[in-house]
Write a structure and sequence with these properties.
There is one protein chain. By secondary structure, the chain is an alpha/beta fold. It contains 30 helices and 12 strands.
C-alpha cells in the first residue's frame, strides 16, 4: 500500500473519533447549560471556533517545519488526552456556573454568557488540536508531488466520510450499548492508533518526508497552484467564508424543517447529520477527478454557488408533495428517508464540490499549502459559526425558516454571479446569460414568500388528520388553526380538530385538554401534607398549573422551554388571566437546568417530559441523576410525580420504575384514567395510606375540585375511580425493581431503543 493511501486511512479513522467526541460532548454540555437553542448554539460555535483557530495556527507553523508527520502524530496523541479531560473539567465547572447564577440573581443573559465562555475554554484545546490536522497532512502530501487539489479534496472528503461513520457509530450504536464515557474511550483508542501509525510512518521514512518547503523556495522551485492574482485570491477567501455561512445556516434550518419528516428521535438527528456529511464527503471526493483539469475554476466556484441558490428555493416547493397521501402511497414507510435525501443530499453534494475548487483557486503554491489550507478552512469555519448563530437566533425566529432559506439562497446566487463575473477573459460568460437565472430565482422566491411552504405543510397535516379521523356523528370533522409560527425553540402550532384543542411543537403532538394533565397536579398534591410550594416542569397547555391553583395557599412555579406556550394559555383556557393572578410564576428555561442552579425547595415537583419517550434529550428527565436533583430540591415531606406516557414496551416502564424507585424507595405507580400512561409517585417519607384516603375523601367534598376533574370526562370523578388507578404499591414496586434497566446520564436506555 502506498504511503499516501496509509495517510488517507489514518485520517479516515481520525474523522471517526472526532465526531464521536462531538456527539458525546454536546450531550454532556447541554445537560449543564440547558437544551435551549442558546446553549446548543454556543456549544457548537465553541467547537467550530477551536477548529478554525487550530487550522489557522498549525497551517502557518507546518510550512516552516520538516517533520509534519511527527507533528500530526503528536496532535492525535494530545487530542485523545484532551478529549477525555472535557467531562471532568465540565463537572468541575458546575460550582462556577452556580456561583455566577447566584451572583447575577439568575440573570439569563449573564448566565448564558458565562456558560458560553466556559464551554469555549473547555473545548478550545481539543478542537484546536483537531483543527490543525488537515493543513498538516495537506502540507505533507503536497510536498511530495505538488498535487494540491488532489490531496486537499481527498483528505477533506475521506475525513468527512470518517465523520459519517463516527456519527452512525455513536448516534446509533455505542452510546446505547456501552454509554457515553465508553464511547469516548473508543474514540481515544482510535486517536492513539492513528498517532502510533503516523509516528511509525515518520520513523520509517526518516526525518525528510519530502522536499522541505524552505529548501524548495531557496532553490527557486516554487510550484504554482492558483492561476489568479492576489486580489482575486483574497476575494476567494471571503467568498468561501460566505459559502460556509450559508452552509451552516442551511443545516440549522434543515434541522428545524426536517423534524416534520424525521420527528425527534436521536436516530433521526444522527441520520440527518450523517446524510449532510455524506453529501459533503462524496462531493469533495468526486471533485478530485476533475479539479486539476479545470481551466476556469473561479467560474466553476460561481456556478456551484448558483446551483446551491436555485436548489434551495426549489426545495421549498417539495415540502407539501413529500408530506402528502401521494408520497405515502408511492414511498410507504420510507417517506422520511426519501424526503430527507431529496431535500438535503443534492445541496450538500454541491457544497462538497465547492471546498476543493475554492482551495484550488486560493492556494498560491505547493510550498505554502499548509498555510493556504489553514486560512481557507479557518475563514470557512468562522463563516460557519456566524451562519449557525444568526440562523438559530435571528433569521428563523424573526423571519421564519422559509424566508431564511430565501435569504441564504439569495446570498448564494449573488455570490455566484460575482464569482463568474470575476473570471478572466479565458472564458466568456456574458452577463445576459445570467439574466434567466435571476428571473427564475425571483419567480420562485416570490411564490414561496406568498405562501410559506413549511408552515403550509404543518397545516395540511392537521387537516389531513382531521379528515382521516372523523369525530362521531353528528359532529363534522374539521380543523381550526389558532396559531402556527416559528419561534426560537421550535415551531408552535395551536389548533382544534372537531372542537378538541391540541398543541404541537415541531409538528409533534405534545398534549391535549384531558384529565391526565389535571391529575399531574391533583394526585401528588393529595400525597403532600399541607403543601405550599409546587414546581411544574413542562407547562404545555397550562392545564396542570390551572388545576393546581384550586388548592388554597399554594404557590405555583412553572418552567417551560418553549416560552411561547405561555402566550397561548388563554386560547386553551379562557380564565387564564384569573389563574395567573393566583400566586403563579412562569419561568422560561430548561427544566433540569432550572433545578440545577436554583436551590429553592418545593413541597411537590411534577414533571411531564415531552413525548415521545425516545425524543432526543427527553431522557435527561428520566435519568437517575435528574431524579436525584429533584429529590435534593424537595422539602423533608416532599413529593415528586413523574408522568410517563409509555414507551416501546414493558421494558421501558420497568426501566423507569427501577430508576425512579432507586432514588425514591417510597414509590407507587398509578395508571392514567384512560389506562394509558403512568404516574410515578415518590415520597421522602413512608406513606400513611389512611391519611391519604382521608385527604382524598375530604378533597372530593370540594365542588370546585370535583368539577375540575370532571371538566373533560368523568373518568376520575369519584374517590373510588381514583383509588382504582393504583397499579403497584411499594411492595409490588420492590418486587419489580430488579427487572428493569437503570437509566443514567451515561447510559440513556429509553433514547436508544433500536439497540435492544
Amino acid at each position: 500500500m502506498q504511503q499516501s493511501h496509509l495517510i488517507y486511512l489514518l485520517f479516515f479513522a481520525s474523522g471517526i473519533s472526532g465526531l464521536m467526541y462531538e456527539v458525546v460532548w454536546l450531550r454532556m454540555l447541554t445537560r449543564v447549560t440547558g437544551v435551549t437553542v442558546y446553549a446548543t448554539a454556543t456549544v457548537v460555535a465553541a467547537f467550530m471556533a477551536g477548529l478554525a483557530l487550530g487550522s489557522f495556527l498549525f497551517g502557518r507553523i507546518v510550512d516552516k517545519r520538516q517533520d509534519p508527520l511527527r507533528m500530526y502524530a503528536s496532535l492525535e496523541f494530545l487530542i485523545a488526552g484532551a478529549a477525555l479531560l472535557v467531562p471532568y473539567a465540565l463537572s468541575a465547572s458546575i460550582p462556577l456556573f452556580g456561583y455566577v447564577h447566584d451572583l447575577s440573581q439568575g440573570n439569563l443573559t449573564v448566565t448564558i454568557a458565562a456558560r458560553a465562555v466556559v464551554c469555549f475554554v473547555l473545548l478550545l484545546v481539543p478542537t484546536t488540536l483537531m483543527g490543525g490536522t488537515l493543513p498538516i497532512l495537506t502540507s505533507y502530501l503536497v510536498r511530495k508531488d505538488s498535487r494540491f487539489g488532489r490531496h486537499l479534496s481527498l483528505l477533506y472528503g475521506i475525513n468527512t466520510l470518517g465523520a459519517v461513520n463516527g456519527v452512525v457509530w455513536s448516534g446509533f450504536l455505542s452510546i446505547g450499548l456501552v454509554g457515553e464515557m465508553k464511547t469516548m474511550y473508543i474514540g481515544a483508542v482510535i486517536n492513539l492508533f492513528v498517532a502510533t501509525g503516523a509516528y511509525f510512518l515518520f520513523r520509517r521514512e526518516g526525518r525528510q518526508p519530502g522536499v522541505p518547503a524552505t529548501a524548495a523556495v531557496s532553490s527557486g522551485r516554487e510550484s504554482a497552484i492558483s492561476p489568479y492574482p492576489d486580489r482575486v485570491r483574497a476575494a476567494v477567501l471571503l467568498a468561501f467564508a460566505v459559502s460556509g455561512f450559508t452552509a451552516l445556516a442551511y443545516e440549522v434550518i434543515w434541522t428545524r424543517q426536517l423534524i416534520l419528516f424525521l420527528e425527534t428521535s436521536i436516530y433521526a438527528f444522527s441520520g440527518m447529520l450523517a446524510l449532510f456529511l455524506t453529501g459533503i464527503a462524496l462531493g469533495s471526493v468526486t471533485m478530485n477527478r476533475f479539479l486539476e483539469k479545470l481551466t476556469s475554476p473561479l467560474a466553476v466556484f460561481g456556478i456551484l454557488e448558483l446551483v446551491v441558490g436555485l436548489l434551495s428555493v426549489v426545495n421549498l416547493y417539495l415540502f407539501v408533495p413529500l408530506d402528502s397521501a401521494w408520497a405515502e402511497s408511492v414511498f410507504g414507510w420510507s417517506v422520511p428517508v426519501v424526503a430527507s435525501f431529496i431535500l438535503v443530499f443534492p445541496l450538500t453534494f454541491a457544497f462538497g464540490l465547492i471546498f476543493p475548487v475554492a482551495g484550488y483557486c486560493y492556494a498560491r503554491s505547493a510550498q505554502s499549502a499548509g498555510a493556504a489550507t489553514g486560512r481557507l478552512y479557518g475563514f470557512n469555519t468562522v463563516g460557519s459559526i456566524l451562519g449557525s448563530l444568526l440562523a438559530g437566533f435571528l433569521f428563523v425566529p424573526v423571519m421564519g425558516s422559509t424566508r431564511a432559506v430565501i435569504l441564504m439562497a439569495g446570498m448564494n446566487t449573488l455570490l455566484g454571479i460575482i464569482l463568474v463575473a470575476m473570471e478572466p477573459a479565458r472564458i466568456r460568460i456574458r452577463a445576459a446569460t445570467l439574466v434567466p437565472v435571476c428571473l427564475v430565482f425571483a419567480a420562485l422566491t416570490w411564490g414561496a414568500i406568498g405562501n410559506d411552504p413549511f408552515l403550509a405543510t404543518v397545516e395540511h397535516r392537521i387537516f389531513r388528520a382531521a379528515q382521516a379521523n372523523p369525530a362521531e356523528p353528528p359532529v363534522h370533522p374539521n380543523a381550526e388553526v389558532h396559531f402556527n409560527g416559528e419561534t426560537l425553540e421550535g415551531t408552535v402550532t395551536a389548533f382544534a380538530t372537531s372542537g378538541r384543542k391540541r398543541l404541537w411543537i415541531n409538528g409533534i403532538g405534545m398534549t391535549s385538554l384531558c384529565t391526565e394533565t389535571k391529575l399531574m397536579a391533583h394526585l401528588p398534591l393529595l400525597f403532600a401534607r399541607d403543601p405550599k410550594e409546587l414546581l411544574v416542569v413542562c407547562f404545555g397547555m397550562g392545564t396542570t398549573v390551572r388545576s393546581a391553583t384550586l388548592h388554597p395557599g399554594l404557590n405555583v412555579a412553572a418552567v417551560e422551554l418553549v416560552k411561547e406556550t405561555f402566550d397561548l394559555f388563554k386560547y386553551y383556557h379562557p380564565d387564564a388571566d384569573e389563574v395567573l393572578q393566583k400566586n403563579v410564576r412562569l419561568i422560561a428555561n430548561d427544566g433540569r437546568n432550572h433545578l440545577l442552579f436554583n436551590p429553592k425547595k418545593y413541597d411537590v415537583i411534577t414533571v411531564d417530559p415531552a413525548p415521545p419517550t425516545y425524543s432526543a434529550g427527553t431522557v435527561n428527565l428520566y435519568s437517575r441523576e435528574f431524579f436525584q436533583l429533584c429529590r435534593d430540591r424537595l422539602t423533608p415531606d416532599g413529593v415528586m410525580c413523574l408522568w410517563f406516557p409509555g414507551g416501546w414496551g414493558d421494558e421501558d416502564v420497568l426501566a423507569i420504575l427501577r430508576t425512579f424507585s432507586e432514588v425514591f424507595p417510597e414509590c407507587s405507580v398509578w395508571s392514567g384514567p384512560h389506562r394509558w400512561g403512568f404516574y410515578f409517585i415518590g415520597t421522602l417519607k413512608p406513606v400513611s395510606w389512611q391519611e391519604f384516603r382521608e385527604r382524598v375523601n375530604e378533597k372530593f367534598k370540594d365542588p370546585a375540585f370535583v368539577q375540575d376533574l370532571a371538566e373533560y370526562d368523568r373518568s376520575c370523578a369519584t374517590p373510588e375511580q381514583l383509588y382504582r388507578l393504583l397499579l403497584w404499591d411499594k411492595a409490588a414496586v420492590d418486587r419489580l425493581r430488579p427487572k428493569g434497566a437503570l437509566i443514567t446520564d451515561d447510559y440513556p436506555f429509553t433514547e436508544f431503543f433500536l439497540v435492544r
